[in-house]
Amino acid sequence: MSGRRVFLLAFFATTVLLAAVVTVLAPQGPHGASSPAAPPGSVPSAEPGAEAGGRSGGTGKPILGVSWSSIWSATVPKGEAVPERVLGTGRCGALHRWATARSAVPRGTSAVAFTLAAPEDRGLVVRSLRVVEGRALPVPRGRDVECVGAVDHTVAPGLGVWGKLSLDAPRDLGLSRYARPGATVGGVVEARTADCSCEWWIEVEVLEGDARRTVRIDDDGRPFTIAPPVARIGTDAQDASQRYGALDVALARGAVALTHGAVAPARGVVAPGRAPGGSSAHAVRLPEIRAQGVWMAADREVPAVGRIVGNPDVPGVVCERVERTLMAAGAHRAGYTTYALVLADRSPPGYEEAVADVSLHVVRVERPKSRPTGYDCYPAGWSGWEPDTRERISAELVPDAPVLPFLTAEPLRFHRDTAAGPATDVLYFGVSPSGAGHLTYHFTIEVTVKTRSGEFARYTLDDAGRPFVLATRPDGVSPSNGEHTYYEIGERIG
């Protein structure tokens, strides 16, 4: 065989091998099929969101929600037990971070915040947006979690909701958003489904000068996920509590030791036509209003607070971050605190035909091993102590009184905001912890609702499966001489 023939055969074999390698590495569609070549003049297939080659790019991340009425639910695979530290009032952010780190799959609705970056040398215009269904996934099995009033505080205020789109009935959402050269533009999209357990992503059509491109928005190269909705964990009363100034409530199915608003086994006569379980109750600690600040006590000094209050000139932000940081470090609310008891009923009795008996049950009282560290933080505009006038009655916790009744035959006046929603009523009350030295009280709220017909329901209310916790203020500490006291006006006191 001549040298020329050997060379031609070797060249032909090498060409075939390279063609096979290129075929294997060709881009694949969402279901594994190779992406066909785009015909002339068409919009190219969505490209990865990361900016490359001087072109626009984008990225997104799953979030809780963007309004006080948002409800976020997800399933954590493998049924992992949910730790107590991420459940309860004001802990939705912690629950979302914990669940997301464990590949939780949103149920029914998935909200995503995203940004698009324009090239450095030219701007872009967003013309349309759509959600795209990817490959099917098994319906997740595991632990269901939920947040009521799930506002995501990590979302920049300028990111508004661009649209709410369905994966079951896809459509393009027409838009007109501009980003100047080198700048970014972004928003929030809510994807919804009734029956899709699948991966999904966002495709955004942009104009860069005269060039049209389609940019894919996903979670740093990974598709988002979603699955059909599951039965609600929260009750009507927990949903309604958001209207009365309650913070977000983080919940988990099957992870609670107490009934947190479920009707206890009823003893008595159920009135005809009223379905058991049509009523619910919820109790929640309310944020301080007007002049009251954040009073908390920790079993040790928390250095992270000093970094937060290094610039306390941001009204409405510093004290909120201080409270979240202290709660994460195991600190407790200290001193007089307001609670709201929200009652909801799908078919309530007539006007002034129902009454409530309410009492506090102290589960345990703890004494610290050493003097606790007290923290005070007062919002901008604070002008001294002003009692909260919402409550008409208060209860004082004392070490030797495990049961403390404070409302007896209190009339209920249910009000219905919408024809389809439940009727609700709310009772405000204050709780003041007391006792020699520094004490921490763990307590539940016991409620009995009675009607003239003889029906009654009993509730044991807690903080998402664990008792409410309230501490006395450290001895000798007042709002003006606290060891760690801050105002949101740029001045550190103490």
From TrEMBL:
Keywords: Signal. Residues 1-19 form the signal peptide. Residues 29-59 are annotated as: Disordered. This is Uncharacterized protein.
